[in-house]
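New to this. Help decode both lines:
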Amino acid sequence: NIYFCNGIMEDVINQLSQIDGMRVPSLTSMLYYRNNPKPYSEIINELGVSHLLEGSVRKLENRALMTVTLIDADQNDQVWSNRYEMDLSVEGVWQVQFEVAQQIIGSLQLALSTNSTASPAGTLPTISYEAYDNYLMAKDLSRSWDIDKNRGSIDLLHQALSLDPSFHLAIAELSQSYGNRAELTGGPWIDSAEFYALKAFQI
Protein backbone atom coordinates (compact mmCIF):
# COMPACT_ATOMS: atom_id res chain seq x y z
CA ASN A 1 0.00 0.00 0.00
CA ILE A 2 3.03 2.32 -0.18
CA TYR A 3 1.77 4.02 -3.35
CA PHE A 4 -1.56 4.74 -1.63
CA CYS A 5 0.19 6.25 1.41
CA ASN A 6 2.39 8.38 -0.84
CA GLY A 7 -0.64 9.73 -2.69
CA ILE A 8 -2.44 10.71 0.50
CA MET A 9 0.73 12.21 1.98
CA GLU A 10 1.38 14.31 -1.11
CA ASP A 11 -2.16 15.72 -1.13
CA VAL A 12 -2.07 16.59 2.59
CA ILE A 13 1.30 18.32 2.06
CA ASN A 14 -0.18 20.30 -0.84
CA GLN A 15 -3.11 21.41 1.35
CA LEU A 16 -0.80 22.54 4.15
CA SER A 17 1.56 24.31 1.75
CA GLN A 18 -1.24 26.71 0.77
CA ILE A 19 -1.39 28.21 4.26
CA ASP A 20 0.33 31.57 4.76
CA GLY A 21 3.10 31.37 7.32
CA MET A 22 3.44 27.60 7.21
CA ARG A 23 6.63 26.13 5.75
CA VAL A 24 6.20 22.50 4.78
CA PRO A 25 9.20 20.41 3.65
CA SER A 26 8.88 18.61 0.33
CA LEU A 27 7.54 15.13 -0.32
CA THR A 28 11.11 14.04 -1.12
CA SER A 29 12.16 14.91 2.45
CA MET A 30 9.25 12.95 3.86
CA LEU A 31 10.10 9.86 1.81
CA TYR A 32 13.73 10.08 2.93
CA TYR A 33 12.85 9.96 6.63
CA ARG A 34 10.37 7.15 6.16
CA ASN A 35 13.07 5.05 4.53
CA ASN A 36 15.80 6.28 6.92
CA PRO A 37 14.15 6.60 10.34
CA LYS A 38 15.89 8.85 12.85
CA PRO A 39 15.12 10.22 16.32
CA TYR A 40 12.74 13.18 16.33
CA SER A 41 15.49 15.49 17.59
CA GLU A 42 17.66 14.79 14.53
CA ILE A 43 14.80 15.24 12.09
CA ILE A 44 13.71 18.60 13.53
CA ASN A 45 17.29 19.90 13.48
CA GLU A 46 17.86 18.81 9.90
CA LEU A 47 14.54 20.18 8.62
CA GLY A 48 14.28 23.20 10.91
CA VAL A 49 10.65 22.50 11.80
CA SER A 50 8.51 23.08 14.88
CA HIS A 51 6.13 20.13 14.46
CA LEU A 52 6.20 16.64 13.00
CA LEU A 53 3.24 14.85 11.46
CA GLU A 54 3.23 11.06 11.64
CA GLY A 55 0.73 8.83 9.93
CA SER A 56 -0.07 5.30 8.87
CA VAL A 57 -2.62 3.91 6.44
CA ARG A 58 -4.09 0.43 6.15
CA LYS A 59 -6.19 -0.55 3.14
CA LEU A 60 -8.95 -3.10 3.65
CA GLU A 61 -11.37 -4.47 1.05
CA ASN A 62 -13.42 -1.36 0.36
CA ARG A 63 -12.15 1.14 2.91
CA ALA A 64 -8.95 2.44 4.48
CA LEU A 65 -7.98 3.31 8.05
CA MET A 66 -5.61 6.20 8.69
CA THR A 67 -4.04 7.26 11.98
CA VAL A 68 -2.41 10.69 12.18
CA THR A 69 -0.42 12.19 15.08
CA LEU A 70 0.90 15.74 15.39
CA ILE A 71 4.01 16.09 17.56
CA ASP A 72 5.52 19.24 19.10
CA ALA A 73 9.12 18.77 18.02
CA ASP A 74 10.69 20.90 20.77
CA GLN A 75 8.74 19.33 23.64
CA ASN A 76 8.54 15.87 22.05
CA ASP A 77 4.89 15.86 23.12
CA GLN A 78 1.84 14.66 21.25
CA VAL A 79 -0.32 17.69 20.40
CA TRP A 80 -3.13 15.90 18.67
CA SER A 81 -4.04 12.48 17.28
CA ASN A 82 -6.96 11.12 15.33
CA ARG A 83 -8.08 8.02 13.49
CA TYR A 84 -9.97 8.21 10.21
CA GLU A 85 -11.95 5.70 8.24
CA MET A 86 -12.56 6.40 4.58
CA ASP A 87 -14.44 4.74 1.78
CA LEU A 88 -12.25 3.77 -1.13
CA SER A 89 -13.81 6.31 -3.44
CA VAL A 90 -12.23 9.46 -4.82
CA GLU A 91 -14.64 11.63 -2.84
CA GLY A 92 -13.98 9.61 0.34
CA VAL A 93 -10.21 9.88 0.06
CA TRP A 94 -10.20 13.57 -0.86
CA GLN A 95 -12.60 14.49 1.94
CA VAL A 96 -10.42 12.81 4.58
CA GLN A 97 -7.26 14.48 3.25
CA PHE A 98 -8.98 17.87 3.45
CA GLU A 99 -10.27 17.14 6.96
CA VAL A 100 -6.82 16.06 8.19
CA ALA A 101 -5.25 19.26 6.89
CA GLN A 102 -7.95 21.40 8.54
CA GLN A 103 -7.55 19.68 11.92
CA ILE A 104 -3.76 20.03 11.86
CA ILE A 105 -4.06 23.73 11.10
CA GLY A 106 -6.60 24.10 13.90
CA SER A 107 -4.19 22.39 16.29
CA LEU A 108 -1.48 24.83 15.28
CA GLN A 109 -3.97 27.70 15.77
CA LEU A 110 -3.60 28.90 12.22
CA ALA A 111 -6.49 30.16 10.12
CA LEU A 112 -7.25 28.63 6.76
CA SER A 113 -6.79 30.91 3.80
CA THR A 114 -9.77 31.64 1.56
CA ASN A 115 -8.62 29.21 -1.10
CA SER A 116 -8.22 26.26 1.24
CA THR A 117 -11.55 26.66 3.03
CA ALA A 118 -13.48 25.75 -0.11
CA SER A 119 -15.06 22.32 -0.04
CA PRO A 120 -13.06 19.80 -2.08
CA ALA A 121 -16.27 18.12 -3.30
CA GLY A 122 -16.46 20.32 -6.38
CA THR A 123 -12.81 19.79 -7.31
CA LEU A 124 -12.68 16.01 -7.60
CA PRO A 125 -10.33 15.14 -10.47
CA THR A 126 -12.33 12.02 -11.42
CA ILE A 127 -15.33 10.07 -10.18
CA SER A 128 -13.65 6.73 -10.95
CA TYR A 129 -11.83 5.30 -7.94
CA GLU A 130 -10.13 2.67 -10.14
CA ALA A 131 -8.75 5.43 -12.37
CA TYR A 132 -7.56 7.38 -9.31
CA ASP A 133 -5.92 4.27 -7.85
CA ASN A 134 -4.09 3.62 -11.13
CA TYR A 135 -2.95 7.25 -11.11
CA LEU A 136 -1.53 6.93 -7.58
CA MET A 137 0.32 3.74 -8.50
CA ALA A 138 1.69 5.39 -11.64
CA LYS A 139 2.96 8.41 -9.70
CA ASP A 140 4.72 6.13 -7.26
CA LEU A 141 6.44 4.20 -10.06
CA SER A 142 7.52 7.43 -11.77
CA ARG A 143 9.55 8.46 -8.71
CA SER A 144 12.12 5.81 -9.65
CA TRP A 145 14.43 6.63 -12.54
CA ASP A 146 13.98 3.22 -14.17
CA ILE A 147 12.79 2.35 -17.68
CA ASP A 148 10.69 -0.65 -16.60
CA LYS A 149 8.92 1.39 -13.93
CA ASN A 150 8.44 4.16 -16.47
CA ARG A 151 6.71 1.70 -18.81
CA GLY A 152 4.55 0.51 -15.91
CA SER A 153 3.63 4.08 -15.06
CA ILE A 154 2.59 4.87 -18.63
CA ASP A 155 0.53 1.67 -18.88
CA LEU A 156 -1.31 2.49 -15.64
CA LEU A 157 -2.02 6.04 -16.77
CA HIS A 158 -3.46 4.82 -20.07
CA GLN A 159 -5.65 2.42 -18.09
CA ALA A 160 -6.81 5.33 -15.92
CA LEU A 161 -7.67 7.38 -19.01
CA SER A 162 -9.57 4.49 -20.57
CA LEU A 163 -11.82 4.68 -17.49
CA ASP A 164 -12.03 8.49 -17.48
CA PRO A 165 -10.68 10.26 -20.61
CA SER A 166 -11.07 13.70 -18.97
CA PHE A 167 -8.99 12.87 -15.84
CA HIS A 168 -6.67 15.87 -16.19
CA LEU A 169 -4.21 14.89 -13.44
CA ALA A 170 -3.58 11.55 -15.16
CA ILE A 171 -3.13 13.33 -18.50
CA ALA A 172 -0.58 15.73 -16.98
CA GLU A 173 1.25 12.84 -15.30
CA LEU A 174 1.31 10.97 -18.63
CA SER A 175 3.02 13.99 -20.19
CA GLN A 176 5.63 13.89 -17.41
CA SER A 177 6.12 10.13 -17.83
CA TYR A 178 6.67 10.45 -21.58
CA GLY A 179 9.11 13.28 -20.92
CA ASN A 180 10.97 11.00 -18.50
CA ARG A 181 11.03 8.23 -21.11
CA ALA A 182 12.54 10.62 -23.65
CA GLU A 183 15.33 11.39 -21.17
CA LEU A 184 15.81 7.74 -20.22
CA THR A 185 15.97 6.37 -23.76
CA GLY A 186 16.81 9.31 -25.97
CA GLY A 187 13.91 8.17 -28.14
CA PRO A 188 11.22 10.23 -29.92
CA TRP A 189 8.89 10.42 -26.92
CA ILE A 190 8.99 14.18 -26.52
CA ASP A 191 6.14 14.56 -29.05
CA SER A 192 3.93 12.42 -26.82
CA ALA A 193 4.95 14.48 -23.80
CA GLU A 194 4.00 17.70 -25.59
CA PHE A 195 0.72 16.23 -26.85
CA TYR A 196 -0.48 15.23 -23.38
CA ALA A 197 0.79 18.45 -21.79
CA LEU A 198 -1.30 20.48 -24.24
CA LYS A 199 -4.30 18.21 -23.70
CA ALA A 200 -4.08 18.60 -19.92
CA PHE A 201 -3.75 22.37 -20.28
CA GLN A 202 -6.84 22.51 -22.52
CA ILE A 203 -8.92 20.56 -20.00
About this structure: Confidence is low (pLDDT under 50) at residues 111-122.
